[in-house]
Amino acid sequence: MTNMNMRLSVDALRVFRTVAQTGNMSQAATLLHLSQSAVSWKIKRLEQQLGCLLLLRGGKTLDLTDQGALLLQHAARIVDAHDEAVACFSPSAMRGQLRIGVAEQVSLPEVCRVIALFAHQHPQVEVQLVIAQSQLLRQLCAGGELDIILHQDFAGLAAPADRLLWLEKLHWCAPLAGQHLSGQQVKLISYGPDCFYRRLAEEKLNAAGMAWSVALECPSIAGMLTAIAAGLGVGILNEYSLNNSVRRCPELEHIAPLPQVASLLRVADKQADAARDAFCALLVTALHQPA
Fold it and tell me: pLDDT value at position 1?
């Protein structure tokens, strides 16, 4: 029987969601401006209330139990609804302008959701969003045309101004009914000459002694997936961008192994800015690392 007298704290659910997203109580505590002991206590209190374990402890990161994964779905909806309600009835007086650049490969749907939530909370802050390849975003940020960028680079190449959000794998992807590549010229699908995935593909294929040619250049994830799924060629996609319309290509991954890629947050100006700092704080607690 359901215990109708049970009340789950929104603050505790916020803590749980942040711990689940970061996989680390210390990092969650930093993001939420709490002590690690306070974070740990709130998690334990939730587990006592619900009568189940929510986290698997003992590994390098904290993984969710089945019950924890279920609670996370509810926690995300509850916390977001709570914050939207608060924003409606107590709009912020914060003013300013934010120019945000995002590489689509990072987590565009989630970034847009965060921007929408931020706009509800701070309606007098004007937010502009630019979607472009990482190399162009870095140039715009260096030139003072963007305040915040979410971009990618190879693992280990982050600049001092970058904050690491997560690392993920890159994969060679092929159509579901793809044939073996032996003796064939590789038809390459890429995001275009300005994307570092394209340069990586060329370097890896050349190093493996494989003939290749560019079959299609497309600046969007949807276009890449459509072209690969249709059998026009193979391409490099990050873990976040994969779906079940394409398959990983183990033959190419063996011949031309790929490095990890880092998703990074960069702020153009280190001087304090209330709107920018509030957005960054919301962003890093809301983004989900790819599974």
Answer: 44
